[in-house]
Write a structure and sequence with these properties.
Number of strands: 0
Number of domains: 1
Strand content: under 5%
Largest sheet: none
CATH superfamily: Farnesyl Diphosphate Synthase
Oligomer: single chain
Length: 327
């Protein structure tokens, strides 16, 4: 099953996405100059994702969600590149959880907050202006902690893999348990739900959370499918390596080609589960359901040939016209 998200868009919708992406990218670029940890090359893809998956939310309302996406990418860089000892990362995780929950950092800390802490506090302050922030705040703060915990756990997975190769690869279920959180979709999605101003969401939180988890697993697998060569070069773990190891253990076709196909099929399974669950959600404005559907369809198509580091603003119109999904 392959997504044709970009091909199925009407011409006027492609034009809207292109123009909105340019507006959002400019807004995000201007803001990002305050934070050295934000890598400019990622801004166009963040803007494109936002304009494509949440078409009925005003650009100004989407700014905190894009800032949060930049924060997630910044934390990911910090962990993957080993910029801090694990003990320091765990300390920061608790600090970020406190910041997300209370809007402040520990009173006993006298120095100015680091960039990522300051960025999170800014995002939290802006999200707190929404009426839905208060009922969703605890869940949002827990997702902040869960995201960083998952990143740290994946860092441990990588250390074990580099030390002992495939003998210490986690199983696929364990990998996705952390991988779905690490990709940041559950945390980011909550910020989008807040921006909808749709209080009917509160009566359907559990099915929304479940659909979001399946969306997150799908996005993680599509990401792994696209980034495998880079992660193989970096000696990092990936769902394709795990799939290949499972095939070897079960005396099945263990070729890299088949492992890639297997991961793509599994991603499509999670995508379809998300789509099925989204059909059971009925909010007053319909934005949650639409965003869930568009999120998995966007990534299924986008990650067939692109990633967040190589998508320039000038390529967005061509991408919308010529994108073709992988088999």
């Amino acid at each position: 099953m392959n997504s044709r998200f970009f091909q199925m868009l009407a011409p006027q919708e492609k034009h809207r996405i292109t123009t909105t992406t340019e507006v959002l990218a400019t807004m995000l670029s201007n803001w990002s100059q305050r934070y050295a940890c934000i890598r400019p090359a990622r801004i166009p893809a963040v803007a494109l994702l936002t304009s494509a998956v949440a078409p009925r939310v005003l650009p100004a309302e989407l700014m905190p969600t894009m800032k949060l996406r930049c924060w997630i990418l910044g934390v990911d860089d910090l962990v993957k590149e080993g910029q801090l000892p694990l003990a320091e990362l765990r300390w920061r995780m608790e600090r970020w959880y406190t910041a997300a929950l209370n809007g402040t950092i520990d009173r006993g800390v006298t120095q100015q907050p680091d960039e990522l802490t300051a960025m999170l506090l800014e995002v939290r302050s802006e999200l707190a202006q929404h009426a839905l922030f208060k009922p969703l705040c605890k869940r949002w703060a827990l997702e902040v902690r869960r995201l960083v915990e998952a990143m740290i756990q994946e860092y441990h997975f990588g250390l074990e893999y580099r030390a002992n190769s495939s003998r210490t690869l986690p199983g696929m279920d364990s990998y996705l348990l952390y991988g779905a959180a690490r990709i940041g979709v559950p945390l980011w999605a909550l910020s989008v739900w807040m921006a909808t101003h749709d209080t009917s969401i509160l009566q359907q939180l559990e099915p929304i959370y479940l659909a979001t988890q399946h969306a997150s697993a799908a996005v993680r697998l599509y990401t792994d499918w696209m980034s495998f060569e880079k992660e193989l070069f970096e000696n990092s773990i990936n769902a394709i390596l795990i799939s290949q190891r499972q095939a070897r253990q079960n005396a099945l076709d263990e070729s890299l080609t088949e492992a890639r196909r297997s991961v793509r099929r599994l991603a499509d399974v999670y995508r379809q589960r998300c789509l099925d669950l989204a059909q059971q959600i009925h909010t007053d404005r319909g934005i949650v359901e639409e965003t869930l559907r568009r999120t998995v369809e966007f990534h299924a198509d986008f990650y067939s040939a692109h990633d967040y580091k190589t998508t320039s603003l000038s390529r967005v119109p061509d991408l919308l016209v010529s994108q073709v999904s992988a088999a």
